[in-house]
Amino acid sequence: MARDPAARPLQRALASLPEPPTSHGHRFDTGPAAFGELLDSSHLAGDVAALRRRIDEDGYLLLRGYLEVEQVLTARQELCRKLAAVGLIDAARPVTAAVYSGSTAGLVAVDRKAYARDLRTGSAVRALCHGPEPFGHGMM
Which of 62, 75, 81, 102 is the most buried (most CB within 10 A)? Predict the structure, then answer.
């Protein structure tokens, strides 16, 4: 990614941050080789072999505009409400901001297998992932 001209604005934005980005106290490697724009695979839609090669090479697929925005937001709201119900979401922030509360104490009283199943089987998540055409547009 170091040679990708699209990465330059990202590198400038990162350089302008007052502090380097971190997660749980660990600093991200934001060098061009490790941190940059994701490679768009939208032009490969419909070519299953090419999509499989891309995911094998890069470990991900970025398909811009592929999912319906409202459907994604509805699934996000559903998941965030369930996370908030066990205290995983910071109650001082909007639920859909999905900011971690810093505590897993609420999980103590929960059957974790059932909770995990509930997270992935909600109606909005199922509609997004298993709807009539979850990977429509002739993708798969």
Answer: 75
